[in-house]
Fold:
Amino acid sequence: MGNNRKWVQIAIFAIIVAVGALTIASNLFANNEKPSVGGKAPHFTLKGMDGATYELSDLKGKAVVVNFWGTFCEPCRYEMPAIQRQFDKWDKNKVAFLGVNLGESKVTVANFIEQYKVSFPILLDDNEEIRKRYGVTQYPTTFFIGPDGIISDIHKGVMDDAIIEQRLAAITQ
Amino acid sequence: MIHNTKCECGHQNHTGTILCESCGKPLADDSGTAPLEMRYDGVARRSQKENPGWLDRIWNFFSSVRNAIYMIVITLIASALGTIYPQENTFLNIDPSVYYKETYGILGHIYYLLGLSHTFESWWFITLLFMIGTSLVICSLDRVLPLYRALSKQQIRKHFHFILRQKVSFQEALPAGKAGAPAPSEEAWIEQAAAALKARRYRVHREGTALLAEKHRFSRWGPYVNHIGLIIFLAAVLMRNIPGWHMDQHLAFPEGQPVKIPETNYYLKNEKFTIEFYEESEMSEEFRDRGQQVPKRFETKAVLYRCTADCDDPGKPPVLEEVHRDDIIVNEPMEYNGLLAYQFDFEQNPMLLSVKPSLKDKRTGEVYGSFELSMSRPAESYKVGDYTLQLKAYFPEFGLDASGTPITLSNQPKAPAFVFSITGPGLDPTGEPYIYFPRQIDKQTFRQDTLNGALAEKLELSVGSMDDVGISEFVSYLNIRVDRALPYIWVGSAIFMIGVIMGFYWHHRRIWLRIDDGVLSLGAHTNKNWFGLRKEVAEVLNKTGYSIEPKQLDREGVRK
Amino acid sequence: MSSSSFLLTAFIIYNIAFLGFVISVAGRKFAVDDPAAYSRRWGNISLGLTVAGFLAHVVFFFTRWAEAGHIPTSNMYEFMTFLGMMTTLAFIVLYLIYRAAVLGIFALPISVIIIAYASVFPREVQPLIPALQSYWLKIHVTTAALGEAFFAVGFAAGILYLLQAVDFSAKDKASRREQRGVEFTLFTLLTVISFVVAVFGFNAAGYHASFSNEVTYVDSNKVEQTVTQTVEYVLPPIFKPHEGQLIEMKPFFGMTDAPFEAPSWMEGSNAGRKLNTVVWSLLLGTLLYALLRLVLRKSLGAALQPLTKGMDNEDVDEIGYRSIAIGYPIFTLGALIFAMIWAHEAWGRFWGWDPKEVWALIVWLFYAAYLHLRLSRGWQGKKSAWLSVIGFLIVMFTLIGVNLIIAGLHSYAGV
Structure:
């Protein structure tokens, strides 16, 4: 009985450890439904105003600024020129800027782009699915994602040039 | 060191055996008079080693009932702490790092910092549950096998010390016959006793003048069955972490338009929401005084669609195919393919969905045509008769910013305004601007006719009647869920109930007796309910010629 | 006859049955001939009375069902009276097994106190909100109550055991601690009784006071709203609501305004009134306790000890254990499993860590610990009795405290 027993014990423990590791792992990683700083940026695929399809994974290797905004949100309108300036300033091979519009109609967004002279890609989150996936509850919210796909900063509220520069400096070393 | 575990009856026992597996004689404490420790019938529970290895140490940790109790108590206390302040998951939209500090002050902030604001999702709570699960597995395995061994091969003729040191025991000469009849022989008495025991549903085994009567052995397996139930239950809870096995979303569905269910390919449309309130007469006086409306019943007529094409194209509307429809009321969800939709809440929030305005000649009243104008997804251009209306700008809630530029105040169609560029007969080929406010009140507030200038005298865009207006009166809040682990939860619970009923509502009873030189020695044991056992043994004895009170059988109580 | 008269009948009969059990135990010393037969006879009479009271209670239950149009278990009043009924039933079951008249002396008062406490709450029939319109209401609540009723009888057996086993004349540290524990438990019961008597008393005397205070909350449009609410007091206000304004108050002992105010950290406009009630209960409980001590000239435990004769200590221990062993599966089935099924149907998730659910789990875990601890010799007897006392206090907190203090999906108290 002795030897047999030892193997049974080991087998049982092995199963338990495996299940335990699975549990803890999935609890620590998958359960964070809201992405947070230090966590992986959730994937998305969205169509842009230019008709092209944008996938976050395509931008791996570059720092990415994802700005959630709407034309109805005053601070979003206010910070748009600053974001545009920063877009012009940084090397496009190193930094990508994406504006994610929150479910507004194309014509509204088009007018805004023309009025504010926005040239960086504006994506349409038609069903607000990506907003929910990113856990965005107030506008504007901007995610600064490093070249490795990890969220380096989540800024809630209006930004200015200095804020954007500071955060980009942190992820473009 | 060699431990001699051979009993005087000749049987070789395992190391650590307390009562001989064969005759029951206590191997160690034979000179005592205290009642015997009958756990697992005194069988060695596990091979005792001199130097337990690390594997044995972990095994022993989880096998200990004392540690299990500690785990239960810690879980209990942790759970209580988790109810002091509302948990994070009760809110849909807060920022925990500031909420607790703001609402409950410094204590609240400490609560948040300690992780107690999400106690039941925290890694240490889950670890606790997991440890309890492990303990369940190991505790049970460690005990059920020796118990099964002990109970399946029981000796009938037990040692005197075993019998008389049972908690219920009795020793007296065989009773004299009734009123002059000769005393029954040993054989005759045992027959009587066996019959009386069988009448009480005991299984009787005999060996000469020794007898073992046993009933309800199955109740001993109760705890192990209920532990299995708990293990299945906990495993099912863990399985929810498998991707695709669990989803839980709260979504708003205004009437009349399909809304996409995120992370799925489904759209759900609230076709109609109805609500009934209790009549004044049906309500109690107190409620009437409050002036509150108490909902009696509310229901969403829901239609479920699957998107079959153009699902991700923001320019084109998705092609939807209806797959299911149902009426959802509280307590009765809609179910389709594992997807469940529960009626959660509602809000009376009248909202404009679409209008069907007609383009008319202002002077003659001739109607050129009409078109469907959606508030959420207006098209880029509309053809009405010979005219083309190109949508230049759309403001769901029209307003003016600080510098007087038109902007929209929100994304809700609370005061919609459309700016068209109209081309057609009699108009500038580059297009003439026309601003259209579907709501009459906005038309007046923002002076639509003044803004449109000359064009307002030629053309009119307006809605004919309320039939041409699509309004959503209510927003229905539904809880959309997927939970594939659910069947196993119920299975685990059912098995737990069976185990616990087996274990608590029946009791395993055994009676050993032997007659030596006309003297009856009797011992009895049960895992619970000694009162009932004593009563039953007394009844059997009284039926076979004795006359005793149940209390006399209690070894421990005898001296009181 | 309206339903409430049946309840009153049951209440009175329970009290008479209680006296019968007292006679059965205490009167033994007067029955020179055959004390055993005397006890048996009086025990049977009292059992008969208990059953009669129970039947009256059942009639109350069904009459009210007819009046209300739904099963009467949907608010605090209805549920508590139902719990009282189940406690009597659990006692009858245990009595039939063990024939222990002395148990009746302690179990029936529990039932009586529960019914009295229930009567404090609003009795009106209220229409059921959609979430409660399910046949699960009948199944979950009734089964859970039956399980808890057995725990209540276990509690009574525990108190009985302690009164038997604690040495009230010993002076050593351990004994003193035990004596204090027993006194405290009895004091808690006195506080509950005082609460009920106070409310009924002041109500009958027509006492009334009311305050208004402002409550700020955020409405569905995320706008902060301030509303003025009136708080009605039945007991003379010692604590008025935080920043409450006096509307009217009958003078009490010359007081025409509340001397104290509820602290601001107590949430809700009713916090002041609830604090006031608790303070009154404690004051009166203390007063009652002091009075009893004066009259009896010994601790309450010592005074009650003579009433606990008539059953072997070990058997009382077994009765306590058996009650909990019988109640545990029923409680699991009703309070956890049926609750999970109903929650799944109504709210879409079988478990949400709602405070009421968590406290039901805490009760379940506590009794699981109790049952496991009993496997060890050292934990039978006194320790087991203490556990059954604490366990039932946790049950009461789950039923009352969670409903009234901690809010959540579950607060249907109607108070």
